[in-house]
Design goal:
Among the domains are: 86 residues, Alpha-Beta Plaits; 101 residues, Chitinase A, domain 3; 92 residues, Gyrase A, domain 2 (2-Layer Sandwich), CATH 3.30.1360.200; 172 residues, Multidrug efflux transporter AcrB transmembrane domain (Multidrug efflux transporter AcrB transmembrane fold), CATH 1.20.1640. It has 21 helices and 25 strands. Helix 3 runs antiparallel to helix 4, helix 16 packs antiparallel against helix 17 and helix 18 packs antiparallel against helix 19. It starts with 6 loop residues before the first helix and ends with a helix.
């Protein structure tokens, strides 16, 4: 009999064909560069199914919960009970979030629990069936911490800050390779992490030049000691709007990742300066202007006795230039009467005359109220940008100029004509030529991971008047919104506790700033204008629509009330092993064969073949779904697959028995197949749906070991109704002779 290829047969054939390709010739591969997984073709697809924790073992990830900010916030008021309650809440939230995250990995079984070790709270995750472990670690340990902080108005406690640095150092010292995990995204606590890749000593902060001995003694991968003192200089605008500087002090330590030495092929000024700094030599940064190149070519150097001169090349070609010393004097003329002003102006004129005469007699003369501003070689054009009224002066002469209420004194130390050829020299003294030349032959590049803990704290956690702390534990969800000016913002919604705490904080801090940190980075620090009691906060960070959505999604996916730090990663052995897995697969094969033999005995060879075809097709489609979804097979999941196959045979039995009754009642084969299928489907559907309901609740509210079992039951029910039962009908029509021919189909 010819096969009539109607739509149902075509769909079933396509599904079966794709399932065969997927099961035998498709596998999941992992790209380590992009940390992503994708499907690829292989000739070993039948062995590339992902296995669960109990079958093939897995990985144990141990995370430390960092309670530092809670302990410091609650310790001040001796709120130990409140601290313990917060810790319990934090642990429950983290375990719940980890459960949700692991569900995205399609892992059938895992364990997540807390443990105490050396007074440290840890989260342990045992997970199997993971081939892309880096992706799993990123998803499980992802922390996008949401923090609300107020300005720190308390006196700085240096010992406390030193304690923060020491504790962090001790944690990192256990495994220096995890320095980034411990120190990154902590700028809200004035803890800063920085990486330097392939940098020379000159490109590193001065701190490394000052501690070269420590740097050079370190082996690759080793951690330095804590360096206490000034890290660098920070510029800021003072109350008068003028640029000022202050030193940034604190505690620094670093990990030397790599040190590579290369030959210097060309020696330029930077190389000379770098070697000089390395040897602790003082560098005269002021150009030593000469009329002659002194026999040294531009870009080259010469060492005579213990002095090095580097010819930095010609300066100010085809320009008039001066070597000048500039000083400034600011008279106080505000708030004076007319008579007082006249008298003061006369004093200023006398002052001008006096200073000019003194400078011409001695260029190094010092004055109590006249401040040196600049001493350098500068072109006429550059000089006129500073003092527009400047006119040509002879060498050794001084003059006074007024600009914006300030009197500037300029004394000319040297003068270059337009056509004069001048050279600029950098001079370094006290050089040991042999040592210097040896150091100059090679150059060292450093790759460094650095941690700096500032000795002051800019922000402290926001707390209500009764000491309750606003944090990520009070976070519910984030959504993209729009500000009053039409700009995209991220709206944060708190739970009922957070709503009360936020209301209290805003009420008692009107006029103060509230800083909002996401992932340890300051996003915004608006000034509180009024109390906010609706349980929401808006984060305005000059976002685009895409950035606002990305921030909201990051908070919803990764917001945790405390950061997780990966402490340990280790392999764990399977509880049952591959022998148990092989045994389960063998049981599945023998079970299908036994069912085939049983159906042949009861209903004959043709119906036995129908049963065998339907079960094999059902199994192939089910395995294809398991592979496509990258589901990790545990023994509980395999047991559910075997059980669902056995339950799928119920459909064959119900249809065959009904068909036998119809044939005994005088129906022909075609009518018997049609009636048997239609009248059996309701009973098949009811039994399968009942099983599916049980599987659904096992998956939703059962413990971990039941989740895989429940999920496979639900999938099995769906496949029985959508694939197995329709396939039984089509196989019966084909094999038992119930197929309609083309003429009958047209009627």
């Amino acid at each position: 009999m010819k096969i009539v290829w109607d739509r149902k047969k075509i769909i079933l054939a396509v599904v079966l064909f794709l399932s065969i390709i997927t099961v035998f010739f498709v596998e999941w591969s992992f790209d380590k560069e992009t940390l992503s997984r994708g499907l690829s073709l292989t000739d070993k697809g039948i062995t590339s199914f992902r296995k669960g924790l109990d079958v093939s073992g897995g990985t144990r990830l141990t995370y430390k919960i960092s309670y530092d900010k809670y302990e410091s916030a609650y310790a001040e008021n001796n709120q130990s009970a409140e601290l313990n309650a917060v810790k319990n809440t934090v642990e429950n939230i983290i375990l719940k979030n980890i459960d949700n995250r692991i569900s995205k990995l399609w892992v059938s079984d895992y364990k997540a629990y807390t443990q105490k070790r050396n007074e440290e709270t840890q989260i342990v995750v045992e997970i199997g069936g993971i081939t892309d472990l880096d992706q799993a670690k990123e998803i499980i340990g992802k922390t996008v911490e949401l923090e609300f902080k107020l300005p720190n108005e308390k006196a700085q406690n240096q010992e406390e800050r030193k304690g923060v640095a020491t504790r962090l150092y001790d944690d990192i010292k256990k495994d220096p390779s995890k320095i980034q995990s411990f120190a990154d995204n902590k700028s809200s606590e004035n803890v800063f992490y920085q990486e330097y890749t392939q940098k020379s000593l000159l490109e590193l902060p001065n701190l490394y030049t000052e501690n070269q001995e420590m740097l050079n003694k370190l082996e690759n991968g080793a951690l330095s000691d804590i360096i206490e003192g000034t890290y660098g200089i920070q510029q800021y605008t003072d109350e008068n709007g003028e640029l000022a500087e202050e030193s940034v002090n604190g505690y620094t330590f670093f990990r030397l990742v790599d040190k590579e030495t290369q030959e210097r092929k060309e020696k330029n000024l930077n190389d000379i300066v770098e070697v000089s700094k390395k040897l602790g030599l003082e560098i005269n940064n002021e150009l030593d202007v000469q009329n002659s190149n002194q026999g040294i070519e531009s870009g080259d150097y010469k060492i005579a006795d213990t002095t090095l001169k580097f010819n930095n090349g010609t300066i100010y070609d085809n320009q008039e230039a001066y070597k000048v010393k500039i000083l400034a004097y600011q008279p106080k003329l505000d708030g004076l009467t007319w008579e007082e002003l006249q008298a003061e102006q006369k004093k200023v004129e006398d002052k001008k005359k006096f200073v000019v005469e003194e400078l011409e007699n001695d260029i190094h003369a010092e004055f109590t109220d006249v401040t040196p501003v600049l001493e350098s070689t500068i072109s006429l054009l550059e000089l006129k940008q500073i003092i527009p009224d400047f006119t040509t002066q002879e060498v050794g002469k001084a003059a006074a100029y007024e600009r914006e209420g300030v009197v500037y004194f300029i004394v000319v130390l040297d003068k270059k004509g337009v056509n004069d050829q001048r050279y600029g020299f950098v001079v370094i003294n006290d050089i040991d030529q042999a040592t210097f030349e040896k150091e100059l032959q090679s150059k060292t590049y450093y790759t460094i991971q650095e941690v700096f803990v500032q000795d002051s704290l800019s922000w402290i956690p926001a707390q209500s008047s009764n000491g309750k702390m606003l944090n990520g534990a009070n976070f519910q969800y984030a959504a993209v919104g729009t500000s009053k000016l039409g700009q995209p913002v991220v709206n944060i919604t708190f739970d009922s506790i957070g709503k009360e705490v936020f209301c209290d904080i805003t009420e008692h801090n009107i006029g103060n700033q509230m800083a909002i940190f996401i992932g340890g980075k300051l996003v915004t620090a608006p000034r509180i204008q009024a109390k906010i009691c609706d349980g929401t906060a808006s984060i305005e960070g000059n976002y685009s629509k895409e950035e606002a959505k990305e921030t909201a999604d990051s908070l919803n996916d990764g917001a945790l009330p405390a950061p997780l730090v990966l402490m340990q990663e280790e392999k764990i052995n399977p509880t049952l092993g591959d022998r148990a897995f092989s045994g389960a697969v063998t049981a599945l094969i023998f079970g299908i064969i036994a069912i085939f033999i049983y159906m042949v005995v009861l209903y004959g060879i043709k119906k036995g073949i129908v049963t065998l075809i339907s079960l094999v097709a059902y199994t192939l489609v089910l395995l294809a779904i398991v592979k496509i979804t990258d589901y990790a097979l545990s023994l509980s999941g395999i047991a559910a697959i075997i059980l669902s196959i056995g339950m799928a045979v119920d459909a064959n039995v119900l249809i065959f028995e009904r068909m036998r009754e119809e044939q005994e009642g005088g129906k022909d084969i075609k009518s018997a197949i049609k009636i048997a299928y239609e009248r059996s489907y309701t009973a098949i559907k009811d039994s399968q749906v009942s099983t599916g309901i049980i599987g659904f609740f096992l998956f939703c509210i059962g413990i971990n070991i039941f989740k895989g079992f429940g999920l496979m039951l639900v999938v099995g029910v769906i496949l029985t109704l959508c694939v197995n039962v329709p396939l039984i009908r089509e196989c019966m029509k084909l094999i038992l002779g119930g197929e309609d021919d083309k003429e009958e189909k047209r009627k």
